[in-house]
Amino acid sequence: MANSSFKNASIRLTFSNGVDELGKPRKKVKAYHNVSDTAAATEIFESARVLTEFGMKPLMNLEKQSNVSIYS
């Protein structure tokens, strides 16, 4: 039987950074580490909303990335 254990998590915010010379959207990514495994989606969203208020670029995407070890 396989088991798993939480290693770490981070949130990744992708901001709109204008367009390039070909008209394609440019993106800027900022990651914040040491996110709790038990952090709910609503809590993460509210934190990202507050962090976004510090900058001038609109938020395009928000992701929570978790790393888990799987072992037997």
Write a compact overview of the structure shown.
This protein has 72 residues and is of the alpha+beta class. The chain has one helix at 41-53, and strands at residues 3-19, 25-33, 59-71.
Overall radius of gyration: 16 Å
Structural class: alpha+beta
Could you report the average pLDDT, rounded to the nearest whole number?
Answer: 95
User: Number of helical runs?
Assistant: 1
SSE order, as H and E? EEHE
Give the distance, in angstroms, between the N- and C-terminal Cα atoms.
Answer: 6 Å
Shape: elongated
- The low-pLDDT segments are none
Strand order of the largest sheet: 2-1-3
Helix content: 10-25%
Total beta strands: 3
Q: How would you describe the oligomerization state of the chains in this entry?
A: single chain
Q: What percentage of amino acids are in beta strands?
A: over 45%
- What kind of sheet is the major sheet? 3 strands, antiparallel
Describe the structure.
The chain is of the alpha+beta class and 72 residues long. It contains one helix and three strands. It has one helix at 41-53, and strands at residues 3-19, 25-33, 59-71. Strand 1 and strand 2 form a beta hairpin. The longest helix has 13 residues, at 41-53. It is elongated, with a radius of gyration of 16 Å. It starts with a strand and ends with a strand.
Descriptive key words:
54% strand, alpha+beta, single chain, 1 helix, 72 residues, elongated
Topology, element by element:
Layout lengths: L2 E17 L5 E9 L7 H13 L5 E13 L1
